[in-house]
Write a structure and sequence with these properties.
Shape: globular
Largest sheet: 6 strands, antiparallel, barrel
Strand order of the largest sheet: 1-2-3-6-5-4
Strand content: over 45%
Structural class: mainly beta
Number of helices: 0
């Protein structure tokens, strides 16, 4: 079963506050926990500098009842890796009558410098 490969993720919620310089600072707090898995999907052929290459896109498969939208952030609990959602999970949701209920959304892994 597909769900056997899922692991725990946390949806991060954004909050903004005014800073001392007249701008805003962003903080992320932990929200709901859900199950999902990150996989690579072979995308389209790209032609960088005249050479053909296949571009892969990381995808987050997740529980059917969770809706993720562009610019949401999620954290994988097992290793703390954070991902930014770059699509809409509602666009790739299996039909409700399907025996395999899940959603799929493209993501990008965030890298933080020490």
């Amino acid at each position: 079963m597909l769900q056997d490969y899922f692991e725990d993720f946390i949806l991060l919620e954004r909050s903004q506050a005014a800073d001392e310089l007249g701008g805003t600072s962003t903080a992320w707090t932990e929200g709901i926990t859900f199950r999902g898995g990150v996989t690579q999907v072979v995308g389209k052929e790209v032609d960088p500098a005249g050479l053909l290459a296949l571009k892969t896109v990381p995808m987050l498969l997740h529980e059917w009842d969770v809706t993720l939208v562009q610019d949401d952030r999620v954290r994988r609990i097992s290793d703390g890796a954070e991902f930014r959602i770059i699509g809409q999970s509602g666009d790739m949701r299996t039909p409700s009558i399907s025996g395999m209920a899940f959603c799929q959304v493209p993501v990008e892994r965030l890298v933080t410098a020490p």
